[in-house]
């Protein structure tokens, strides 16, 4: 994957200084040429620009600075308009020096200039889906701004940063890139005793647990506040505790000191079984891979057991100082996200609805009749500014029903000629389940290639995947294409998609057929040539089990 870095100052672009970015096809634009566009083939997925304000404005007050920043903003917008398929990430710094006495009456001019530029960039980020902004001074301040800048380096090399500053910058660039391409964690598994509160409720009783406004009780209270913030951003909370379920639920329902309430918890696994066994059962109930779980427990033995049984679960080792737990949790990168979608806000209720659905369906004598009574209402909706973040989420977080597990970014959903993107929204009598499916396809020369077919596993069981497949077939017919082709890549996780393919009339195209249709040439931008299988679906085939939608 290509990664282009530009800067208004020299960055000592010897790869040895950028070790953690070695796995990328890393390129540096010419020094102080942040608007270079020529010589770059196929705009890179990520274009990183480091802006040091001291490189292009004077350190004095006046309208001249605003004019320069406005001119810079116009150039930035022009560059963005020419690279619509690239994610643009801007790191901004205004640090030079601080004179406390001079700033007793007036705001520091560096802050004024930086804030003016940041405001302009953040306005762009609202206008354009592919722009992102980082206040570099805030990042460096955690390590000390003086340690991150080096006047000698600037005098000798025109590099404003110290080696420590470059190392931190490289690390933060990696963090930002990972936030786009690395699947996010979805579930936080929480112990109770000495984790959500101090003490053991089964021995001391609810009235004696430590949870309140003073001392250690305040530390646990702040930790719960941090957990609540995560839940409100769309993270699923599940309780894993070796305890009596009645005692634990009583705390959640009645204890006045609790920030977390019963309504915030998607599931309880409170018993005396091994926590690893409970995690396996929870994974099945939520239809989520354990790799999307994060485990927090004060007991080191329990942590080691879970880590041993689930190497890919992130097991958090809590700080020895409980008052640091809230900070530790909020800084954990696995849950971080640059936007919160409408679906995120409803995540807890959606998974609770899923539990009700599974229980009701398993007790129903006639499955088809039960599903018809639910009054399921699916609808295909074009991807636009209002829902594009959800499309990115589905592409990056869905594993089990995913035809090729490609991880798409915002730029991949920018509409190009004959390329179409739709989300599937679904409602029924149990509630609004939000956007739960994604299709993306390209039409060229009487051929239609579906390069994304994704469905959230929390909705499986309603046969909405069959409805979605039927809609794809209808679109193909309406576009008068002769061949409907799907790109499929088998992974260790998409067995559900494999089973769906086996149950329907997909045919694996042979090399000769691919060559005759000239598929690789026509769709070379979309296909993963090394791993892809191409599947044909006949336009006259019958899609199974559509009765509940008719």
Describe the structure in your own words:
It is flat and about 80 Å long. β3, α1 and β4 form a beta-alpha-beta unit. The strands form three sheets. It has a seven-stranded mixed β-sheet with strand order 11-12-13-14-15-17-16, with helices on both faces. Strands 2-1-3-4-5 form a five-stranded parallel β-sheet. The protein has a five-stranded parallel β-sheet with strand order 8-7-6-9-10. It is an alpha/beta fold and 550 residues long. The relative contact order is 0.07. The chain folds into three domains: 3-181, SGNH hydrolase (Rossmann fold); 187-331, Rossmann fold, CATH 3.40.50.1000; 365-549, 3-Layer(aba) Sandwich (Aminopeptidase), CATH 3.40.630. α1 (63-82) runs parallel beside α2 (109-127) and α8 packs parallel to α12 (325-331). Helix content is 38%, strand content 19%. The protein has helices spanning 63-82, 109-127, 136-141, 145-148, 151-157, 163-181, 201-204, 215-232, 245-254, 275-286, 300-309, 325-331, 342-345, 347-363, 367-373, 388-397, 464-478, 495-503, 511-517, 519-522, and strands spanning 2-7, 25-28, 46-52, 87-93, 131-135, 187-190, 236-242, 267-271, 293-296, 314-316, 377-382, 419-428, 431-444, 447-455, 483-488, 506-508, 533-537. It contains 20 helices and 17 strands. The longest helix is centred in the N-terminal third of the chain and has 20 residues, at 63-82.
Report a brief summary of the structure:
By secondary structure, the chain is an alpha/beta fold. Helix content is 38%, strand content 19%. The chain has helices at residues 63-82, 109-127, 136-141, 145-148, 151-157, 163-181, 201-204, 215-232, 245-254, 275-286, 300-309, 325-331, 342-345, 347-363, 367-373, 388-397, 464-478, 495-503, 511-517, 519-522, and strands at residues 2-7, 25-28, 46-52, 87-93, 131-135, 187-190, 236-242, 267-271, 293-296, 314-316, 377-382, 419-428, 431-444, 447-455, 483-488, 506-508, 533-537.
